[in-house]
Design brief:
The structure holds 2 protein chains of 2 kinds. Chain A is mainly α. Chain A is 76% helix and 0% strand. Chain B is an alpha+beta fold. The chains are: A mainly alpha, B alpha+beta.
Chain lengths: 460, 344
């Protein structure tokens, strides 16, 4: 909850600043603000801990100034900081997209009625952003509940660490399973609450006539505070981990770097995540269409079901698929197909959430017009609905790719033998304490994640 | 280009009966207005005809094909019915020509696209994005798109309501000309009586999900079937009277017509059918009246009068001569009047 609130608090102003104002270097900040998404929480947590924690890099810098010992940031504070910094883009991206699609006439109408900009934002803009904020917040909550890397590094006891400890240390499968069940139940409660609060209302562009771009808001005196805000967030969420990684990389380059292995792992990561993104995007369209256009208990259930994948920690889904693979579909066990399927199960909600949000902004009249022009429902889906929501679907695919490329437990458990990805390379290195060896694959991981992220943010 | 017949259509949404026994027959090539207040079910009726909603009961027949009935439901894409939406619902991802070509299917005939765009006067903007067009141009694209596949019937939902008032009258007559030129049967929905009366050749007045009256614009305006229709179509004065053998006597004197009524009746007369002057022509049964007030509108004036019986009526005359409160005048019926039995 604390993470979600903080994530929204960071994401809303960032979205507005990058979408609607004359912030200097807006394009740069747009990309920078979304980039933390690609940093796996385990890398981020480690970087923050080693930089800001006791005996970290910051302390080294401050020691000459007489600071003997920084307070420990492990525990709740560290977990909270890490998770907030690396999950706020989940809220930022949908909110920013919604802001850009919002009909400027609505705001102008409200301004014309003598409301101040702040009031207009609160009474007109904000309600229109609620579906996007809700979709983003849901992802944050689910991510935080199922996160393992950050909380374990920050030594903050949570459900996932408890499950892991039980399972690994004492092979207490019953205990692990019952805790996993409680965790799953908790996540289902979150989903239920979210669905209750979701407004039925669909938000379309209000009027025909020429669509216009919203005016940019001049920041004037607020330029520098706004810049400082963006810079601080980016410094903590981006520059810090990359700096730490670069530092380790430099240390490791002096030694021998297994370039061949890294290249193979990169190829594997691209292949698996790419396939997962493609499949998830394709699946998200019918699910979103069912959920938005044909409201029924069945369609609602299908949509809910697609979210449960994300509500389950990666390790739970992976173990379930191992069971399925060994008992039911032996031919699939430890195949690429199984791994891709696990990713789709895990990350489909990312794609569905974004696709659904963009579909809500397509008027059903447009589809009806297409039907009356002699095209059947599937033809209309292909020629009208799909192109109109394609920006959302592409964004969803990019999100899936970004998340899949860093997914660790499912890859570890389900990947075919000898099939290393960047994530497993990093894990192999860090789990035995060779942070230097993990640094280069980490940087490669960040680099290949930046491309879809660039697509995601720079398209418009 | 077919006739269309709706029989006893019904459609409910939950507890709300949107369409409740709607019957209408439209002849081939006619332009029909469904006129009614908002919430009267006229748009739902249009959506039933288009096939976007499935009727709970009733039949829809176009030409000799049943589109909706007891066990029949033809999906919208098989109906050959064009629709122009209130918000136009253009495809934002296609240019103007792309929108028009959409209904022609793959390998659309460029000449047909060109022809239809020329028809609506948009031949020059085929390459433009629909978002760059003005509201009036978007409306014509929507019309061209609906006309391109040469549908049997074209439906227009409040087609002029999003246009500026100054543009509306011009666009209305243009649309009517285009529809006539194509000879296409059309039904349009409107809540604006002036629009219905001026564009349609048949007006169906709709209230509470059913048709109250069908007729030519002149018929529904001057011979309304009941008080509700009379009141909805414009200002009306209701005067009590007594009918005997084709003649009706009321506060404005005796009028005669082909009414088959006897006993207590109401005489319905529109303000513009009341003439006012110092003296009446000798062959007119005029009565004395006192001018109570006068509102001047430029082109015309509305004069409130008190009759000897104490009843007040309004007369709408051209803007001159100017009458003043206190003037004593003669008033008589100079135009169509309608007579309804008291309980109709």
């Amino acid at each position: 909850m604390a993470v979600t609130t903080a994530a929204i608090a960071i994401a809303l102003p960032l979205a507005w600043l990058t979408a609607r104002t004359d912030l200097p270097g807006r394009r740069l900040w747009t990309v920078a603000a979304a980039l933390p998404l690609v940093i796996p929480s385990y890398i981020g947590a480690y970087a923050i801990l080693s930089a800001l924690g006791p005996a970290g890099l910051a302390q080294d810098l401050l020691e000459p100034l007489g600071v003997r010992r920084l307070p420990s940031i492990a525990g709740f504070a560290g977990a909270w900081l890490t998770l907030t910094l690396f999950t706020y883009p989940f809220v930022l991206l949908p909110v920013r997209a919604a802001l850009r699609r919002l009909d400027p006439q609505l705001e102008e109408a409200a301004l014309g009625m003598g409301r101040s900009r702040t009031e207009v934002f609160r009474t007109v803009v904000l309600p229109h952003l609620v579906p996007a904020i809700g979709a983003g917040a849901l992802l944050v909550v689910l991510y935080v509940l199922s996160d393992f890397g950050a909380v374990s590094i920050m030594r903050f006891e949570s459900f996932t660490t408890a499950i892991y400890t039980l399972y690994r240390a004492s092979f207490d499968r019953v205990g692990a399973a019952s805790l996993a069940t409680v965790l799953t139940a908790l996540m289902l409660v979150v989903l239920w609450l979210e669905s209750r609060s979701r407004r039925r209302g669909a938000l379309y562009r209000s009027a025909p006539g020429t669509a216009r771009r919203a005016q940019t808001v001049p920041l004037r005196g607020w330029r520098w505070p706004a810049l400082a805000f963006c810079a601080t967030i980016s410094a903590l969420a981006l520059a810090l981990p990359i700096g730490v990684l670069a530092y380790w990389s430099l240390q490791s380059v002096s030694g021998d770097v297994p370039w061949g292995e890294i290249a193979a792992a990169t190829g594997h990561s691209l292949l698996v995540s790419g396939l997962a993104a493609l499949l998830a995007a394709l699946c998200s369209i019918p699910i979103a269409v069912l959920a938005v256009r044909f409201r029924s208990p069945f369609s609602a259930a299908v949509e809910r079901l697609s979210y449960t994948g994300h509500a389950l920690p990666g390790i739970v889904v992976a173990l379930a698929l191992v069971f399925f693979g060994t008992r039911v579909a032996a031919g699939l066990y430890q195949t690429l197909a199984m791994l891709v399927f696990a990713f789709v199960v895990l990350f489909l909600p990312l794609a569905v959430g974004v696709t659904r949000a963009s579909l809500l902004q397509v008027s059903p009249r447009i589809e009806e017009a297409a039907r009356s022009l002699g095209r059947g429902p599937f033809e209309v889906l292909r020629t009208v609905t799909a192109p109109l929501i394609s920006s959302g679907t592409v964004a969803g695919a990019a999100l899936v790719f970004l998340t899949a490329v860093k997914e660790l437990p499912a890859t570890l458990i389900l990947a075919p033998i000898g099939f290393e990805t960047l994530a497993t390379e990093i894990w192999k290195a860090t789990s035995v304490g060779f942070f230097e060896r993990g640094a280069v694959p980490s940087l490669v991981l960040l680099a290949i994640s930046a491309l879809p992220l660039y697509l995601l943010t720079a398209r418009d | 280009m077919s006739s269309i017949s709706c029989q006893n259509l019904r459609k409910s949404f939950g507890e709300v009966r949107a369409v409740d026994g709607f019957s209408l027959r439209v002849e081939q090539g006619a332009t029909v207005a469904l006129l009614g207040p908002s919430g009267c079910g006229k748009t739902t009726t249009l959506r039933l005809i288009a096939g976007f909603e499935r009727p709970d009961a009733g039949t829809i027949v176009v030409g000799d094909q049943t589109l909706a009935g007891a066990d029949v439901f033809v999906p919208p894409e098989k109906r050959r019915i064009g629709v122009v939406f209130q918000d136009y619902a253009l495809f934002p991802h296609y240019d103007v020509a792309g929108n028009v070509a959409y209904g022609l299917g793959r390998g659309a005939d460029r000449n047909r696209v060109r022809e239809v765009l020329d028809l609506v006067g948009l031949g020059a903007v085929g390459e433009r994005s629909v978002n760059e067009l003005s509201g009036g141009q978007q409306q014509r694209v929507a019309l061209a798109r609906a006309l391109a596949p040469a549908p049997d019937l074209i439906l227009l939902d409040e087609p002029f309501s999003n246009l500026d008032a100054s543009l509306r009258a011009k666009v209305r007559s243009e649309v009517r000309e285009i529809l006539d030129a194509q000879g296409v049967t059309s039904i349009f929905v409107t809540h604006d009586q002036e629009e219905a009366l001026s564009v349609a050749d048949t007006v169906a007045v709709v209230n509470a999900g059913r048709v109250e009256q069908v007729g030519t614009p002149e018929e529904v305006y001057s011979r309304p079937a009941n008080r509700w229709v009379a009141g909805f179509l414009g200002e009306i004065e209701v005067l009590p009277g007594v009918a005997r053998g084709g003649t009706v006597t009321c506060d404005l004197g005796a009028i005669s017509g082909d009414w088959d009524l006897a006993g207590e009746v109401d005489v319905l007369v529109r303000p513009e059918s009341l003439a006012v002057d110092i003296t009446a022509p000798p062959d007119r049964p005029a009565v004395q009246a006192l001018v109570l007030s006068r509102n001047f509108y430029g082109h015309d004036q509305l004069i409130e009068l008190r009759l000897p019986s104490g009843q007040t009526v309004r007369a709408r005359r051209l803007g001159f001569p100017a009458w003043h409160p206190g003037d004593r005048v003669r008033v008589w019926i100079d135009g169509p009047a309608d007579v309804l039995a008291r309980d109709a």
